[in-house]
Amino acid sequence: MLDEEQDLVALRSPTDFDLLSTFLQDHWPQTIAKRRAYTGQTTGHFQERGVQNVVALVNIFVASILIIGAIVGLYELRTQPDAVRLGTIAIFMVLFAISLGLLTYARRVEIFAATAAYAAVLVVFVSGDLGSNG
Q1: Ranges for the DUF6594 domain (predicted)?
Q2: What is the CA radius of gyration of the chain?
Q3: What is the pLDDT of residue 47?
Q4: SS3 helix, strand, coil % of the chain, rounded to 5?
Q5: Are 74 and 89 in contact (CB under 8 A)?
Q6: Weakly modelled stretches of the chain, pLDDT under 50
Q7: 74, 62, 69, 65: which is closest to 123 by C-alpha?
Q8: CA quadruple 9, 11, 17, 19: dihedral positive or negative?
């Protein structure tokens, strides 16, 4: 009956489809294996809430690092030439876009919009009084 792994169907689809959630669901350490007597195959079960909590904590940590790290880094570079500060903004933009792509299930257009908003905030910070050379 269930000769192939692809023959299994979930009654409810998972809430998150991002890469981190998928990876954790595939490698969750507290998986309970149940062996079917009539087929001899094993099916793994895990608490989805635990995966969601870990993903939420990772997202909060990465978002905090990207915001606080960018502000502190740009503040420390306030005496550096504009090219160095703009390069730093570019690096943080790339890290932000990568984190959105890996940690969320955002579409491409949403990633572009969020990255543009993030870059605008960083540029305003650099060009404002708080990030100026004087």
Answers
A1: 2-123
A2: 22
A3: 73
A4: 60, 5, 30
A5: yes
A6: 131
A7: 74
A8: negative
Query: Quick one: which of 126, 77, 122 has its CA closest to 97?
Result: 122
Q: Is 87 left (phi over 0), alpha (psi -120 to 50) or beta?
A: alpha
Distance of alpha carbon 68 from the chain centroid = 16
Q: Look at residue 131 in the predicted model and tell me its pLDDT.
A: 45
In the three-class reduction of DSSP (H, G, I as helix; E, B as strand; rest coil), residue 81 is classed as coil
Give the CA angle between residues 129, 65, 101 to the nearest 5°: 110
The full length of the chain comes to: 134
Residues in CB range of 23: below 8 A, 6 or more apart = none
Q: Where are the alpha helices (DSSP H) in 31-103?
A: 48-76, 82-103
Tell me 39's DSSP state: T
The CA-atom distances, in angstroms, between 14 and each of 10, 22, 59 are 9, 9, 18
Residue type (1 letter), 44: G
Work out the angle between the directed axes of helices 19-27 and 48-76 (0-180°, nearest 10). 130
Q: What is the pLDDT of residue 133?
A: 54
